């Protein structure tokens, strides 16, 4: 049994003095993408604005110690050139390489990947569990998901602890993937944390 986790801080509990880390953040008038030492802001204008100032509006963002999971210029180029429909269909075709039990699984997973990137905007986060026989490709699927998130995610293994997951997530929108949780000696505590945090009420949120 494996878990894909949407890891993020709960928006309602974050005030102006709380630093929001790596990820995509939605406020009343803008979308802010936080990366390594800079952030990109979409605030109603046609262009994406790059900023090195950690303060935007009445919110403070943490720009230090973040993964370099995106490049501003590449996102600007993608917004201008990438066909949204083709991008979605390409992801669906990629997920169809796995033999899921349900025919609609590739479309569902594509939507969940997009939702994971925007997870800080949800008050409730979907919990996703992958199950399958040994050697069915679950770990390979996790590796592909990790690649798709471009450095915004990490894969936790059977030796991972709740403390380690919490330290990784902190006040960020990072994505957490937990592989082989059935072999983790802390699995009951991790699953309990996952179940409670999916409600979007805690400071640190991890959904399975």
Key structural traits:
single chain, alpha+beta, five-stranded mixed beta sheet, four-stranded antiparallel beta sheet
Folded structure, characterized:
- By secondary structure, the protein is α+β, with helices and mostly antiparallel strands.
- Helices cover 31% and strands 22% of the residues.
- The protein has 6 helices and 12 strands.
- The strands form 3 sheets. Strands 1, 9, 10, 11 and 12 form a 5-stranded mixed beta sheet that branches. A 4-stranded antiparallel beta sheet has the order 3-4-5-6, with no helix packed on it. It has a 3-stranded mixed beta sheet with strand order 2-8-7, with no helix packed on it.
- α2 (84-95) crosses α3.
- It is globular and about 50 Å long.
- Residues 4-17 and 200-208 have low confidence and may be disordered.
Poorly predicted residue ranges = 4-17, 200-208
- Roughly how many Å is the radius of gyration? 17 Å
Q: Please report the total strand number as a whole number.
A: 12
The H-and-E topology, N to C, reads as: EEEEEEEEHHHEHEHEHE
Distance between the termini: 11 Å
Instruction: Estimate the helix proportion, in percent.
Output: 25-40%
Q: What does the average pLDDT come to? A: 82
Q: Sheet bearing the most strands, described?
A: 5 strands, mixed
**Which shape, going by the Cα principal axes?**
globular
- Oligomerization state of this entry? single chain
Assign the structural class, choosing from mainly alpha, mainly beta, alpha/beta, alpha+beta, or little secondary structure: alpha+beta
Percentage of β-strand residues: 15-25%
Discrete helix count: 6
